[in-house]
Amino acid sequence: MSHPHSTRSFSLFGNPFRMKSHKDLELPVSVWDDKWVDVYFDISTKLLDICNAFSSELSRLNQGNLPLKCALHILEPASSKSFPRACSLLGDWRHHINAKNPRIEKCSTILDSLVGSLDLPKVKNSAKGKVLMQAMYGVKVETVFVCSVFSAAFSGTSKKLLDLDVPEMHSWAPAFRSLQNLVNEEIRDRFSSGKFSVLNEMEAVDAVVQELCPSIQGGVNTEDKVEQESHLKTVEELGAAAEKLSQGMDLLAKAVDGFFQAVLTSRDTLLSSLRFDKTVNDRVVGGRNIGQQVVY
C-alpha cells in the first residue's frame, strides 16, 4: 500500500512534468529503480552547477553597469573637460563586457557530459517506467539545448552551441530539430557577422558607445547649439539602452534563480519521499518480524 506522501508530485528539472504526467501514469517514488534515482540526481546536480555559472556571469555583467552609469553622469552636462574621463569609462565597460568568465568556460564540459549521457537506462517489465525515462529524456534534451544557447551567448562564441540528434522514434523530434536549427543558425550568423554578443540589449548599448566615443574624442563644440543637441541626444540614447540592458539582465537573473530553486526543490522533494518510503518500509519489516516471533 502506497502512502500519499510517496506519490507526491514534484517538478522534474524545474519543468512542468509530474509523476502523474497523464491520467494513465502514476508511478510512486517507492517503486523507482535505483538507477533512475541516480540518473536524476546526477543530471540535477550538473544543472545546479550550470545555474551557478550563469548567475556568476550575470552578476559580472551587472558590475559593468557602474562605469557605464558614471560615464552617463559626467556626460550629461556636455562639458569638454569631462570627455576624456567619459571615454575612458566607456572603454572600461567594453573591456569588462568582453572579458571571459572561467566558470562559463567550464559549462561546456558539463554540457558535454550531459550530452554523453543522454541515453537513459533501459527499462524492462515496466510500461510506466519506460514513459518516465522518455519524459526524462525529453526534458534533458530541451534543458541541454537551452543551456547551450545561453553558454554560447555568454561566452561570445558559436563553438559552444550543441547540435543534438534526437531519434525519429520521438514524436516531437521534427519540431525540436526545426527549433534547434533556427536558433543555432541565427546565433552563428550573428557571430560570423562580427557581433560580439547575441543579446540585443548588449548590442544596442555597444552600438551607441561606438558612436559616442569618436565624437567626444574629436571634441564637441559646446557653443554650437546643433552639435550640442546632437551630442545630448546620443547620450540620452545611451542612457535608455543602458536602462533596457539593466532591466533585461535583472529579468534573466530572476529566471535563472527561479530555475535553480525549482531544481533544488524537486531534489529536496524526491529525497524527502525516498526517506519517507524507507522509514515506512523499515517499520513494516520491523512489525512483521515482531509478529513472527515465537514466544516460549
TrEMBL record:
Is Cell division given among the entry's keywords?
A: no
Q: What is the lineage of its organism?
A: Eukaryota, Viridiplantae, Streptophyta, Embryophyta, Tracheophyta
In the record, the note on similarity to other proteins reads:
Belongs to the ROH1 family.
Q: Which PANTHER family match?
A: BPS1-LIKE PROTEIN
Q: Membrane topology for this entry? A: Single-pass membrane protein
Q: Where is the protein found, in the record's own terms?
A: Membrane
Pfam families in the record: ROH1-like
Keywords, ordered alphabetically: Membrane, Transmembrane, Transmembrane helix
Membrane spanning segments where? none
* Gene Ontology CC: membrane
Q: Is Transmembrane included in the keywords of this UniProt record? A: yes
Please state what the protein is called. Answer: Protein BPS1, chloroplastic
Q: Which InterPro entries match?
A: ROH1-like
